[in-house]
Amino acid sequence: MPDISLFSGLTEQDVKYLLNFFKAQKITCKKDSIIITNIKNTNTIGYIEDGEAAIIRYEYNGNRTIIEHIENKDTFGKFFTSDNNNDLSIKAIIDTKIILFDYEYILKNYKSNNEVQVKFLNNIFITLSNQLEILNEHMNILSKRTIRDKLLEYFNNLSLKALSKTIYLPFTYTMFADYLGVDRCAMMRELKNMKDDGLIVTYGKKIIIKY
């Protein structure tokens, strides 16, 4: 899939025009604040201008699963997740600047004879396809039966994308356990076992794959 963001191929002037024409909102969210709750009940398309956030699913028993980690130039919204759970929230991991669009407003006011708008809408569709591919990768990780298998699958994915045996976790180990849908203590034990078995070396969030 091509690496396309919402504003790929557009000039700074084009972006300013789109923000004005589609009445976008620019907001800044503090670290650990909730950006959007119940995202499935909104028509919002969000774009990370600067910062990091996570899409989180909260369970009835208080447990949480990180559906996805999102950062600069990433897009989020109900159209960009295959999770049908209504209790999905977007949480800022650090202070984060975000641009928000209303998807229905875009569709109602979109002009097919406008080159900039055509490019923008095309970027939305490509981004949507890329996002679904990322979500499918996550579902594949969650389907693995053991914690080690989940870890190996995730590390392999990061290694392939980085074209390197040295990879970096994009979030804390607590959030990593939530992303894998496992207990943090159990995950840390398995990471230690993998180090003892000579499969990996870790330096904080830096991981060197030895297998």
Shape: elongated
User: Which residues sit in consecutive blocks of at least 5 with pLDDT less than 50?
Assistant: none
| Strand order in the largest sheet | 1-8-3-6
Our measurement of the CA-to-CA distance between the termini, rounded to an integer number of angstroms, reads 27 Å
What percent of residues adopt helix (DSSP H or I)? Answer: 25-40%
* CATH uppermost class of the largest domain: Mainly Beta
CATH topology of the largest domain: Jelly Rolls
DSSP, total strands: 11
Strand fraction: 25-35%
Indicate the structural class: alpha+beta
Total DSSP helices: 6
Rg over CA atoms, rounded to whole Å, is 19 Å
The tally of domains stands at 2
SSE sequence, one letter per element:
HEEEEEEEEHHHEHHEE
Largest sheet: 4 strands, antiparallel
The CATH H-level homologous superfamily of the largest domain? Jelly Rolls
If classified by CATH, what would the architecture of the largest domain be? Sandwich
Q: Could you tell me the mean pLDDT?
A: 89
